[in-house]
Amino acid sequence: MEVSTKTKGIVNVADEKILEFPEGIMGFEAYKKYALIESEYEPFIWLQSVEEQNLAFLLIDPFLICNDYEADIDDLTLSKIGIVSAEELVIMTIVTIPSDDSAITANFLGPIVINRKNNKCLQVVLNDNRWNTKFNIIEALKKKGE
């Protein structure tokens, strides 16, 4: 499938690599289908809407940033996208890069959950006061390196 992207023009994505968000992403519920597109800056990856070229989210694996990150998601929620075992589960977080000089952050409170077996996804809101929507990536990486 040809996908018009926000940052890379038109790219080809295998149909079996298209992700589906049955409930959409918070604030963008109308858009259900996305593709993962490599970013020019590892370890980031683009979550590109295949329905709207200008809708893309930068993602990162939260475990690369924070060793003690936990996303405690109940089985009923995970069953919405067919997850029955931890091996099927991929967790990513949405990154915000502000236009001013403020911090680059990741939304640790609202991770993206991907079922790698069937490509169904959802965004969840964690009930855990350790995490927030503006987790400072650079500070966390500095602490991790110490």
What's the total count of β strands?
A: 11
Helical segment count? 3
What does the radius of gyration come to?
Answer: 15 Å
Structural class: alpha+beta
Note the run of SSEs as H and E.
EEEEEEHHEEEEEH
Please state roughly what percent of the residues sit in beta strands, choosing from under 5%, 5-15%, 15-25%, 25-35%, 35-45% or over 45%: 25-35%
Overall 3D geometry?
globular
Distance between the termini: 44 Å
- Helix proportion of residues, in percent? 10-25%
Low-pLDDT stretches are none
Biggest pleated-sheet summary = 9 strands, antiparallel
Oligomer status? single chain
Mean pLDDT: 93
Short description:
The chain is of the alpha+beta class and 146 residues long. The protein has 3 helices and 11 strands, in the order ββββββααβββββα.
Description:
This protein has 146 residues and is an alpha+beta fold. The chain has helices at residues 62-65, 75-79, 137-145; strands at residues 2-4, 10-12, 18-20, 33-38, 45-49, 56-60, 89-96, 105-106, 112-115, 121-123, 135-136. The longest helix has 9 residues, at 137-145. It starts with a strand and ends with a helix.
